[in-house]
Design brief:
It is a single chain. Helices cover 48% and strands 12% of the residues. With 344 residues, it is α/β, with parallel strands linked by helices. It has a domain of 198 residues: TIM Barrel, CATH 3.20.20.210. Strands 1-4-5-6-7-8-9 form a 7-stranded parallel sheet. Strands 2-3 form a two-stranded antiparallel sheet. Strand 2 and strand 3 form a beta hairpin.
């Protein structure tokens, strides 16, 4: 498994072709997944190891991906902390009782992920048994800022007003919250590694809402704690969107691989991140909705900008959109492999 092109790219070692996988590669764009969702809720699937295994494997069977990613949800650790949630159709996750005061933070519970999230760890064991070494398995968790924003906003937000209000107005409480979240996530990722994942990705999906100074003050120490806790055990990926102004801070926080979204050319991003890190990205996911010629032209541009340099993992700048044709995803993965092999 250490010879897989995905893991070699994480280590910035030469590969035969550019490895590719897709965030949300298991999901609503696949008919197999939609059939399961007619019978089960998203949380039902997350909580049932056999269903999570099936959904994780669906894209591996249909697409030339070089890694599988555990089917789960980054909010799962919130419930055992005392923040139950559900997914509302057309709206996304919604917490029953969002954090609204420093007192709510002090009331949060600690938990052992090996007990409270044992179903996730069981799914990892089942998935690895089914993969049988075909491709590596990526585990994941949310970063403190993104988890805190969901916990405070109660769901998705366009401006993170409640989050920043608590962050600026009650900085001590904010750091207590993020310290708790960092401890939980570090322990959870450690448990996933113990269960058998080959790499882990930390999703800080909404951290692009912070300025460099705010990231350094309010997020960096907590995210860094997570990466320090798992450093050297498996390759680590640090992902966020809208992060082109904070690349130096992201690399300081940690990650063998830094995710890059589509808002910046990948060669410029890599220059800002530093040559001692691998990069992942960075096609705009909406390009998979349009003419395939345009999708492949933009893909070629990314590969040309990288120029065959070791340490590039091809991915989208964010997750596959639900209306994406499966055939476009299949074509894209095949094209990345064939185009990166030619003359590189």
């Amino acid at each position: 498994m250490t010879e897989s092109r995905f893991l070699k790219a994480c280590r910035r070692e030469p590969v035969d072709v550019t490895p590719v996988w897709f965030m949300r590669q298991a999901g609503r764009y696949m008919s197999e997944y939609r059939a399961l969702r007619e019978r089960y809720s998203l949380l039902d699937i997350c909580r049932a190891p056999d269903l999570a295994t099936e959904v994780t494997l669906q894209p591996v069977r249909r697409i030339e991906v070089d890694a599988a990613i555990l089917f789960s949800d980054l909010l799962l650790p919130l419930e055992p902390m005392g923040l139950p949630f559900d997914f509302i159709k057309g709206e996304g996750p919604q917490l029953e009782r969002p954090i609204s005061s420093p007192g709510d933070i002090d009331a949060l519970r600690d938990f052992d992920p090996r007990v409270a999230l044992a179903h996730v760890l069981e799914a990892i064991t089942l998935i690895q048994r089914e993969l049988a070494g075909r491709v590596p398995l990526i585990g994941f968790a949310g970063a403190p800022f993104t988890l805190a924003s969901y916990a405070i906003e109660g769901g998705h937000s366009n401006n993170f007003a409640r989050t920043k209000s608590l962050m600026y107005g009650h900085p001590d409480a904010w750091h207590r919250l993020c310290s708790r979240l960092a401890m939980v996530v570090a322990d959870y990722l450690g448990a996933q590694i113990d269960a058998g994942v080959d790499a882990v990705q930390v999703f800080d999906s909404w951290v692009g809402a912070l300025s460099p100074a705010d990231y350094r003050e309010f997020a960096l120490p907590h995210t860094q704690r997570i990466f320090d806790a798992v450093k050297g055990r498996v390759p680590t990926i640090h992902f966020g969107t809208g992060t082109s102004t904070i690349f130096p801070e992201l690399r300081e926080a940690g990650g063998d691989v830094i995710g890059v979204d589509w808002r910046i050319p990948i060669d410029l991003a890599w220059e800002r991140i530093g040559s001692d890190r691998a990069v992942q990205g960075n096609l705009d996911p909406t390009l998979l909705l349009g003419p395939t010629a345009r999708m492949l032209t933009e893909t070629s541009d990314i590969l040309d900008r990288v120029g065959g340099r070791p340490g590039h993992i091809f991915n989208l700048g964010h997750g596959i959109l639900p209306s994406t044709p499966l055939e476009h995803v299949q074509m894209l993965a095949q094209y990345v492999h064939s185009a990166s092999r030619r003359g590189r």
